[in-house]
Amino acid sequence: MARQKKNLNEMSFLDHLEELRWLLVRCSAGILIGGVVAYYFSDFIIDTIILGPKKGDFITYQFFCDLANTYNLDKSFCNTEMPFTLRNGDMEGQFSLLVWTCITAGLIISFPYILLQFWNFISPALYKKEKKNAIKFIVISSLLFFLGVGFGYFIITPLSVNFLANFTISKEIENIIDMNSYIGLVKTTSLATGLIFELPVIMYFLSQIGIVTPSFLREYRKWAYVIILILAAIVTPPDVISQIIVTIPLVILYEISIFISAAIYKKNNPITP
User: Fold this and answer.
1) Which residue ranges does UniProt annotate as crossing the membrane (predicted)?
2) How many CB atoms lie within 10 A of CB 266?
3) CB atoms within 10 A of CB 37
4) 51-86: pLDDT as tens digits
5) What does pTM read for this prediction?
């Protein structure tokens, strides 16, 4: 049934809830359709993408192995086999993993569509000039998200898998990893990094409404760098090169956020020096 579009000022609280409900319905439908598409390619997604970091010939391991051989660094990435096996301990385990993997892939696939729905939801509250930025917002946000997912999958995930798989406190202990634990690491790391890469967009909106200022970001820059270095040290093996590779993009994102916040602040306060 077609719903009559009301003026923003005429909408009651219940009308806003109704709009929010339809927003969630459309986003869920987008994820579901993306999940169906992912199911069609489920063999490739699971065998090649999900289980890729478990294989010793994964592209990231080959890159770091060549780097280690060139500069005489830690050669743990040159292992041809990962010292662990995956197990499924539940009767419905593999079916549940398939469903949730398809849903996660559907979320990634439909991310631009979800952004479009959120933009349509907030656009009535924006000025006419701001509404024209819809395509720019969706393209930039989607690009940052996909870059983040790729960085999480190709860099952070294999670094974490390699380190945790080779870490041992005793040779008597054999690593038999639960499938849920492994796939959870891959999915969580990739999605979390994708959202972290949205930092410049988030800072743009926070700066627009005055919650964040460039002086605030500059003042706490050192603390931000410390947190980034700690995160890099946690998710990477104990070698400097790996930590630098993870740290640099996050530092760049933070600096871009400062630049964006400064531009917004200058635009909103043209008289202030």
Assistant:
1) 20-41, 97-122, 134-156, 191-211, 223-238, 244-265
2) 12
3) 14
4) 999 988 899 888 888 887 887 776 767 776 788 889
5) 0.84
